[in-house]
Amino acid sequence: MIWNLGLLYLISFIPVNFRLPYPNVFSAIPDFVMGLAFLATWIEPASIGEDMISSLAQVMILEFIIIHSAGFMASVIYGDAPKWKKMRILFGLGLFYVVFVVGFSFGFRSWWPLIAFGGLMFNRMLSVLTGQAGHGKEYEFFKNMWGVNVASYLVSLFAVLLFPLPAFGVSSNAFSHLNMGGDFIDQPHKMIAWGFLYFSLMGLYELRAKSEKREKVIA
C-alpha cells in the first residue's frame, strides 16, 4: 500500500517531456481487461478461477474507496503546501485507507483486498504516469477523470439495479452464505454486470480522452 502513496507523490516529478506513444491506449487497457474479467465471470463463473464472483464483488467495493481517496490525494499532491507537509498528509491519508482495507481483508480472511486495492490505485494513476495529461494540467486532468469515475460508478450502478439482466452462469445462491438481504445478494449477477459496465465505460473514456501535448523545455 505504501508504495502506491510514494508512486502517487512521484507523479509530480515526471519529466515535462515524458510521454508514451498512444497514452490513452495504455491507460484504457487495464479497464478493458477488468471489464472482460467481469464479463467472462458473468457468463461462466469458473472461467478465470474459483470464487471469482466473491473476488470481483470485493473489487467493486474497493473501487469506491479508490474513488473516495483519489480526490483527497490529488488535491494534496497538486496543492501549494511544502513537500514535507504533503508527505505528512499523504502518509496520514494512506494510513487511514490502509487500516480500512486491512480490516476488510481480515473480514474476508483473504489478502486479495490488499492486492486489489494496490492494483486499482495504480490503474487510476496510469493516465498521468503515461503522459496523457499535459505538463501543468495534471491536476485539471486528474480532477476531470475523478468526475468521470464518480459518474460512471453511479450510472452503471443504477443501470443494473433498474433494468432486468440475464443471470447467465451466475447462481442466485452465490452470496447466500452472507445472511444478508438486498438486490445484489438476491441477484448476484447484477454485481458482476455492474463491474462489467463500469470498467467498460471507464475504458471507453480513457480511450477517447484527449491527450494534452507536453511542451518541450528549452534550456
Task: Chart the SSEs and their pairings.
Blueprint: H1 2-10, H2 23-43, H3 52-77, H4 83-108, H5 112-129, H6 138-162, H7 183-186, H8 189-208
Helix pairs in contact: 2-8, 3-4, 3-5, 3-6, 3-8, 4-5, 6-8
Structure description:
The chain has 219 residues and is mostly helical. It has one domain (2-9, 25-208). It is 68% helix and 0% strand.
Task: For this entry, give a set of tags.
disordered C terminus; 8 helices; mainly alpha
Largest sheet: none
Mean pLDDT over the residues: 79
From the alpha-carbon coordinates, what is the Rg to the nearest angstrom?
Answer: 19 Å
Q: What is the H/E string? A: HHHHHHHH
Strand content is under 5%
Q: What is the rounded distance between the termini?
A: 37 Å
Number of domains: 1
**Low-confidence runs:** 1-5, 212-219
Helix percentage: 55-70%
Structural class call reads mainly alpha
Shape: globular
Number of strands: 0
Helix count, DSSP H or I runs of 4 or more residues? 8
Short description:
This protein is mainly α. It has helices at 2-10, 23-43, 52-77, 83-108, 112-129, 138-162, 183-186, 189-208.
